[in-house]
Amino acid sequence: MKAAILVKQKSPLVVDEVQIPEVLHYGQVLVKVHYSGLCGSQINEIEGVKGPDRFLPHLLGHEGSGVVEGVGPGVTNVKEGDHVVLHWRKGKGVESSTPVYKLGGRTVNAGWVTTFNESAVVSENRITPIPKSFDMKLASLYGCAVTTGFGVVQNDAGVKSGESLVVFGAGGTGTSIILASSLASAYPVIAVDINDFKLENARRFGATHVINSSREDARQKISEYLSSDADVAVDTTGIKEIRELAYEVSGREGRTILVGVPKAGEKMCIDSFKLHFKKKITGSHGGDSNPAYDIPRLLRLQESGRFSLEKMVTKVCSLGEINAAIQELREGRVIRCVIKMC
Ligand SMILES: [Zn+2]
């Protein structure tokens, strides 16, 4: 089967034929991947923002959808033929050992879940079954972007109706945060980005105000739009100055949620005195989402017609086009790109 492999950091992925492990071990599930999302985390992996990668060469990708083709011993939550979302946060079931693939005679590593491969051996606790009627392309977004977005709003920030929220970065995760805060009746919901295309899209998902920080002074504009500081400020960019700004624009009793991953070892500078009172700052780990609980309930909500994710996917490509798609994501030309695997 074909897979996109990270062979060397800061280099394009290598798309090649990889051999699937012959035996499914305890807790492992074989999934035919239908769609895989492309997320900023994979760019971070390729760029090596967390430092040297001791698992090279390895497979990657952490949000997807597919169909179960086989189950190993001990697997009870899914069976052959089930439609599933593949996610990186732990859900229900066994945490298996990680699979080892082969490229020629060489070992290719993989984590508990990978999705840039036509077939994947994944850990039972990294998949959640979904109704067969659910759109597989949109289902892939529930592996990371959507569950993280809702988790940030509901778990990390605990947004209440009428609270104000500012989100920096209107990519896939930022857009999901905007959608979730809009559904939670936050107001205003302000999106900040340097890209007009993303800001226009943010409006479709519920942003009530948008600021292009390449042309406008974001700090000043936010003050203009809010009668006071923000109740919640979220950074999805991981950029030091923007993380600091997010902290600054959240009010005396505001919450700052850092979602974007910073460069390894990079420090930020804040006036911590305010934290002795009621101001809070926290780093999010995937919105603290619990896929086994969150995916079914959010799917139900989507099926009820309360929201549509169709406009979140602004590009669909093939696995062979993955490096070009990664470049488009880097340049901010897509909200979410989804790879059609079969
Ligand atoms: Zn992700």
Task: Please explain how this structure is put together.
The chain is α/β, with parallel strands linked by helices. The protein folds into two domains: 2-143 and 308-340, Alpha-Beta Complex (Quinone Oxidoreductase, Chain A, domain 1), CATH 3.90.180; 145-288, NAD(P)-binding Rossmann-like Domain (Rossmann fold), CATH 3.40.50. It is built from nine helices and 18 strands. It has helices at residues 40-47, 136-139, 145-156, 172-183, 196-204, 218-225, 240-249, 291-303, 322-330, and strands at residues 2-6, 14-17, 28-38, 58-59, 64-71, 83-86, 100-103, 106-109, 119-123, 127-130, 165-168, 189-193, 209-212, 230-235, 250-258, 280-283, 313-318, 336-340. The strands form four sheets. Strands 3, 5, 6, 9, 10, 17 and 18 form a seven-stranded mixed sheet that branches. A six-stranded parallel sheet has the order 13-12-11-14-15-16, sandwiched between helices. α7 (240-249) links the parallel β14 (230-235) and β15. α3 (145-156) crosses α4. The chain is globular and about 60 Å long. The model has no long low-confidence stretch (mean pLDDT 96). The protein binds zinc ion. Residues 39, 41, 62-63, 144 line the site of zinc ion (ZN).
What is the compact description of this entry?
This protein has helices at residues 40-47, 136-139, 145-156, 172-183, 196-204, 218-225, 240-249, 291-303, 322-330; strands at residues 2-6, 14-17, 28-38, 58-59, 64-71, 83-86, 100-103, 106-109, 119-123, 127-130, 165-168, 189-193, 209-212, 230-235, 250-258, 280-283, 313-318, 336-340. By secondary structure, the chain is of the alpha/beta class. Residues 39, 41, 62-63, 144 line the site of zinc ion (ZN).
